[in-house]
C-alpha cells in the first residue's frame, strides 16, 4: 500500500483493507464489464491475458474524440462542465471507469492513472 501513489503525493493506503473476496470481485468486474469486451481474459488468480483488439479500440476512440470535439463551439467552450470538459474527461478516462491503473513499467516509479494510460500501454 505504500507504493501505490495516487499522483498527488498521497498513497492508496487503504489497499491493505480490501479482503480477498472484494479483490476477486473487482478483478472479475474489470474483465467482464469495465474493459473492452474480449480484449482481456482472466487466466489465473493474479494473471490477466491480453487477447488483442487494441487496433479496433483505437479506431473507436478516435471516432469518439472527433465526435466530442465537434460538440465544442464558441458558445460552449468556456462553460465549466461543457463540451471542453467532457472532451478532457474522455481523453483521460475513455472507458469512464472508477478504477485506477498502477503503471510501473520499469519497476521504479509506480503511479495511478486512469484508463487512457492503461490502454495506451496495452496498445504499445
What this model shows, in words?
A two-stranded antiparallel ribbon has the order 1-2. The protein is globular, with a radius of gyration of 17 Å. The protein has four helices and four strands.
**Overall mean pLDDT:** 86
Principal-axes geometry comes out as globular
Number of strands: 4
Termini separation: 28 Å
Query: Which ranges are low-confidence, i.e. pLDDT below 50, for 5 or more consecutive residues?
Result: none
Helix and strand succession?
A: HEEHHEEH
- Biggest beta-sheet profile: 2 strands, antiparallel
Strand content: 5-15%
Secondary structure: helix percent: 40-55%
**Count of alpha and pi helical runs:** 4
The side-by-side strand order for the widest beta sheet comes to 1-2
Q: What structural class do the secondary elements suggest?
A: alpha+beta
List keywords for this structure.
4 strands; about 120 residues; alpha+beta; two-stranded antiparallel sheet; globular; two-stranded antiparallel ribbon
Amino acid at each position: 500500500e505504500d507504493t501505490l501513489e495516487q499522483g498527488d503525493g498521497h498513497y492508496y493506503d487503504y489497499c491493505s483493507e480490501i479482503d480477498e473476496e472484494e479483490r476477486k470481485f473487482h478483478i472479475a468486474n474489470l474483465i467482464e464489464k469495465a474493459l473492452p469486451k474480449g480484449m482481456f481474459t482472466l487466466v489465473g488468480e493474479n494473471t490477466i491475458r491480453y487477447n488483442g483488439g487494441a487496433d479496433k479500440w483505437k479506431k473507436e476512440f478516435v471516432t469518439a474524440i472527433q465526435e466530442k470535439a465537434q460538440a465544442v463551439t464558441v458558445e460552449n467552450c468556456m462553460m465549466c462542465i461543457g463540451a471542453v470538459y467532457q472532451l478532457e474527461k474522455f481523453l483521460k478516462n475513455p472507458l469512464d471507469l472508477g478504477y485506477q491503473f498502477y503503471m510501473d513499467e520499469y519497476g521504479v516509479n509506480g503511479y495511478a492513472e486512469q484508463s487512457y494510460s492503461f490502454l495506451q500501454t496495452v496498445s504499445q
